[in-house]
Design a protein that fits this description.
Blueprint lengths: L3 H63 L13 H24 L2 H21 L7 H26 L21
Helix pairs in contact: 1-2, 1-3, 1-4, 3-4
């Protein structure tokens, strides 16, 4: 019996250690898979929100062009249909913001709020709710572009995407567009 006890302790200790190592490996795998799943959801939410923002800005730019605030190759009169299209874009933007309220880190959530404010500024000008001229539209558009850049930078940082956001043009309008 004296020779069997050390062997029995060794077997029990080996089983316990094997169980603990397996449990730690399972926990690590679960955390990795869980993080990858959340990252995938967050990436989709960021992408959907970015697309919704773009749709809003395009609608507002076209309305603003009709008012003479900016130039656009496809200006649109503020008819019921055009205003409804802008309202649908805004509703989509609002809906795409909700997942970010749940998933985004505080820095990115603050960037989302700033970007929403910049887009609303464009909307109010495009709908004639806020008086302005071409220079005030240009400033509001520059503010929008800066807020969008910040959003993309913080979103990429939260996802730990290497590299930098694709650079915007340094100036707007682009150099190929004729001056008014």
């Amino acid at each position: 019996m004296g020779n069997e006890l050390p062997a029995l302790v060794g077997v029990v200790l080996g089983a316990v250690l094997s169980y603990l190592v397996g449990m730690l490996n399972d926990r690590t795998r679960w955390r990795r898979e869980h993080a990858a799943r959340w990252d995938g959801l967050l990436l989709q939410a960021y992408s959907d929100y970015g697309q919704a923002i773009k749709e809003c800005v395009v609608a507002y730019q076209r309305l603003a062009a009709h008012l003479g605030l900016t130039e656009d190759p496809t200006p649109v009169e503020p008819t019921n249909d055009a205003l409804e299209q802008a309202a649908r874009a805004e509703a989509k933007r609002a809906a795409m913001t909700e997942p970010l309220r749940l998933l985004a880190d505080p820095t990115t959530a603050a960037a989302v709020r700033s970007l929403n404010d910049a887009v609303w500024h464009l909307e109010w000008m495009a709908r004639g709710r806020l008086t302005g001229d071409a220079s005030s539209w240009d400033q509001a558009y520059r503010d929008y572009r800066a807020a969008r850049q910040t959003f993309y930078e913080t979103a990429r940082a939260s996802l730990q995407v290497p590299g930098e956001v694709m650079a915007e043009r340094a100036t707007w309008p682009p150099p190929w567009r004729p001056s008014s």
